[in-house]
């Protein structure tokens, strides 16, 4: 069972790496914006609320897009697992689609309904809970195909 556990750990590391890469991109965007703002104003402490809001919205769009991509990949990889887990992951994918759609069409936070803003945090917590449940299941119930792989007939040597 070492190989599948290693695969699960690699998946978790890959997911964490993706999140770190996104955080780095967002941080770089923040640095670029801060530099531009300080060059234009001559004062690094001067920030426009509209620009802060724009950057925050851009971050939300980027994060929800990455979540959507990740959930889509997970959905395609879990066929054969219990339907309850598959349903939760598919629900997570649907939720990320909704969140990304909501944030991607907004030009400002005023374009978002108060329910979208208040429910986003709760929805993200549910997605995280479902993904942790999936990883816990995989740690304790490794699919046989992950252990032995697909069987195929060997060609006879001549």
Automatic annotation (TrEMBL):
Q: Does the record's keyword annotation contain Cell division? A: no
Q: Does the keyword Nucleus apply?
A: no
Compartments (UniProt record): Lipid droplet
Q: Cite the Pfam families for this sequence.
A: Perilipin
GO CC annotations on file: cytosol; lipid droplet
- Which of UniProt's keywords are assigned here? Lipid droplet
Which BP terms from GO are recorded?
lipid storage; positive regulation of triglyceride storage
Q: Which InterPro entries match?
A: Perilipin (IPR004279)
Matches recorded under Gene3D superfamilies: Flagellar protein FliS
Q: Which family does it belong to?
A: Belongs to the perilipin family.
What is the name of the protein in this document? PLIN3 protein
User: What is the gene called?
Assistant: Plin3_1
């Amino acid at each position: 069972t070492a190989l599948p556990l290693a695969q699960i750990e690699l998946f978790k590391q890959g997911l964490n790496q993706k999140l770190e890469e996104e955080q780095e991109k967002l941080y770089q965007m923040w640095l670029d914006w801060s530099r531009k703002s300080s060059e234009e104003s001559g004062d690094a402490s001067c920030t426009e609320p509209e620009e802060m809001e724009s950057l925050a919205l851009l971050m939300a769009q980027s994060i929800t897009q990455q979540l959507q991509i990740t959930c889509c990949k997970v959905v395609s990889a879990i066929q054969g697992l219990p339907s309850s887990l598959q349903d939760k992951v598919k629900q997570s994918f649907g939720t990320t689609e909704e969140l990304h759609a909501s944030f991607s069409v907004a030009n400002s936070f005023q374009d978002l309904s108060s329910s979208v803003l208040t429910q986003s945090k709760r929805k993200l917590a549910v997605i995280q809970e479902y993904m942790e449940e999936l990883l816990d299941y995989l740690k304790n119930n490794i699919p046989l195909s992950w252990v032995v792989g697909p069987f195929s007939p060997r060609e006879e040597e001549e």
